[in-house]
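=== RUN LOG ===
request id: a7f3
mode: sequence -> structure
chains: 1
length: 217
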Amino acid sequence: MQQIVNLNTQLQSGNTTDAAAAALKDQRDQYVDQLSQLMDIRVIDNGNNQIQVFTNSGVQLVGAEPRRCRSIRKGTVTPNTQWEADPTKSTLGTLTVHFPNGGSLNLIQTNSIRSGTIAGYLELRDKTLVQAQNQLDQFAANMSSLLSDKTTAGTAVSSGASNGFRSRSVRPAERQCNPSHLYGCRQRPASAVAGAGRRSVGAALVQQCHHQIPTIR
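=== RESULT ===
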């Protein structure tokens, strides 16, 4: 905004050639374009190569004297910080414009910025991310309830056809692992694992099966 005011002043002096004036206008237009990307603005040509810039809500940003925008920050943003219309309650920063007479206006509190990059960030900060955080909190609470460490008594499983198991006689001959299944290991007689020493029979069976599992390349 200050650059636009400076270029207005240079163009108003009348000490520039037509070519120089055109170059200054091009520079001013570039600054106006940059400002329009940040917020919604309205440009008024007053003649004599002078322009004024307002927000679409009517707040004057560029006039005969410079205005200054200031971003006010409030510490580190945490999941508990949120913006409030009342500045004494808000724990998030805001954006104000300061006028030549010493007054100021809170652009966020007065909803003076309605589109552009700044409005998009404000929408994300004050609405979209707040809703997403609430959804995540609810999801985490549901997961915590589902994965509770509360112990629930169960019913022991027994074998037999009446309980859904099918039994068959097995020869006492040595059982081999099924090489096509990782868990297709079937028991070998006790003599085959007698050398396991202090290792458990289960560990010896796992080791025996491991040697017969084909290598996957």
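=== NOTES ===
The first strand starts at residue 41 and ends at 47.
The chain has a mean pLDDT of 76.
=== END ===
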